[in-house]
Structure formats: structure tokens, C-alpha cells
Design brief:
By secondary structure, the chain is of the alpha/beta class. About 20% of the residues lie in helices and about 15% in strands. The chain has a five-stranded parallel sheet with strand order 7-6-5-8-9, with helices on both faces.
């Protein structure tokens, strides 16, 4: 096992090439600590990307992206540089976890009316694109009883959400926050999902998080 943390790009790239590597699998994409510069040097005969970041890298040196027929539709290859390499099974398998007692926060404690329609948008503020916010604004305009529910890691992030939403005409009165999953033992992923009428997340939901309840619908990915 070798680590390239802290090393400049030429050193690990040269080390991989010296190992005469047939297949190099990238597991980081454009996420934190990724090293696309290593891939750009084509240090292996074949380079594939997988798992940690499912989007395209945009590098012609990457031969393929491991995917499945759900994560990438049939014509996805027409819009990205890396060739989709679909698996017969799911590209993002999650192990089953035992069910835990999910103590969902009361709506009243979050300032949410019992008859409100709650849209849970469990993503970091930087993932709220202009197109996404424009759609939410249109939805809120058509559903007067609706509110948006966010789940940042800390309360210090709340002002950033308010500023971003205000820039697209979404009033702070239509915004609520729920503690992030895992911040307390009593706040697992399932708890915040059941607080919402429907929830959207960039994380794949667990089986328990998608279990129907009288107040929730299955979580979805955008």
C-alpha cells in the first residue's frame, strides 16, 4: 500500500507507471482529496472511475466509468467523455443495516404546521443550483402550505441557506431546518426523512429511510 497524500503529482504518477499497472481504478473523481492530475498523465494502460463520485471526470485519459442502467441512461455516453461501462447489478450497493428506533422531531418543535406540505431537501447549500431553486420557487408559489426543510451539519450554515434562497425569491418564512442525521444518537437517517412529506437527497437512501410511513414517501435522488 502506497500513499500519495502530500506528494506532488509527478511522483505518484511516476510510481504507478513504474509498477507497470494494467488497470487503474479512480475512486475519488472530483471529491475531496482527489488527484485528477495523476489520471491526466495516463500512468496505466486502462483507467476507469468508480464509486466515490459518479459524475463524469471530463478526462479523455479515463477510458470508462463503471455504472449501471439506472445511474446512466442509454444515451449518457453521448454527453460525457468517459465511456459508460454498465454493470448488470447496482453500481452503488449499500449493505442492509438493522432497523433502529427513529425518534422523529415533532413538527411543532421545528415551527412547522401539522397540515403543512414539507419538502425535505437534504443537500449542502452549494448543491442548490439556479435551476433547482427556480423549480422550488415555482412549487412553493403553487403550494401555499408548503415549506422547504434543510438539514445542514451545523446551525452556523443557516445564514448561507437564507442568503442563497433569498436571491431566488424564496422567503425565509418558507424555510425550516432539522438536525442532520447522526448528529445525535436519536437522529438517524430515518428520523429526518419521516419529518418530511417527501425528501430529496444526493445520498442514496437506506432501505429503512425509504420505508413508507403515514407522513412520508420514499426518498429520491436528484
Amino acid at each position: 500500500m502506497s500513499t500519495c497524500r502530500g506528494a506532488t503529482t509527478p511522483k505518484p504518477r511516476g510510481g504507478i507507471a513504474a509498477d507497470d499497472c494494467d488497470v487503474l481504478v479512480d475512486l475519488m473523481g472530483h471529491t475531496r482529496h482527489s488527484r485528477p492530475g495523476i489520471l491526466a498523465g495516463k500512468p496505466a494502460r486502462v483507467i476507469v472511475t468508480h464509486l466515490g463520485y459518479h459524475g463524469a471526470l471530463g478526462l479523455s485519459q479515463v477510458d470508462a466509468k463503471i455504472t449501471d442502467r439506472y445511474a446512466d441512461v442509454p444515451d449518457a455516453g453521448d454527453y460525457q467523455i468517459e465511456r459508460p461501462l454498465p454493470m448488470a447489478s447496482c453500481v452503488l450497493p449499500f449493505r442492509h443495516t438493522p432497523r433502529v428506533a427513529a425518534v422523529a422531531p415533532a413538527r411543532a418543535a421545528l415551527g412547522i404546521a401539522e397540515d403543512a406540505v414539507v419538502f425535505g431537501e437534504f443537500v449542502p447549500v452549494q448543491k442548490l443550483s439556479p435551476r433547482c431553486l427556480g423549480l422550488w420557487r415555482a412549487i412553493l408559489a403553487r403550494v401555499p402550505r408548503a415549506v422547504l426543510l434543510f438539514s445542514p451539519a451545523t446551525t452556523a450554515e443557516h445564514p448561507g441557506y437564507f442568503r442563497q434562497l433569498a436571491g431566488f425569491g424564496i422567503d425565509r418564512d418558507r424555510v425550516r431546518f432539522v438536525p442532520a442525521a447522526g448528529t445525535t444518537p436519536a437522529m438517524p437517517e430515518t428520523a429526518r426523512a419521516t419529518t418530511s412529506s417527501t425528501s430529496c437527497s444526493t445520498r442514496c437512501p437506506t432501505r429503512e429511510a425509504t420505508r413508507r410511513s403515514p407522513r412520508s414517501t420514499p426518498a429520491c435522488r436528484w
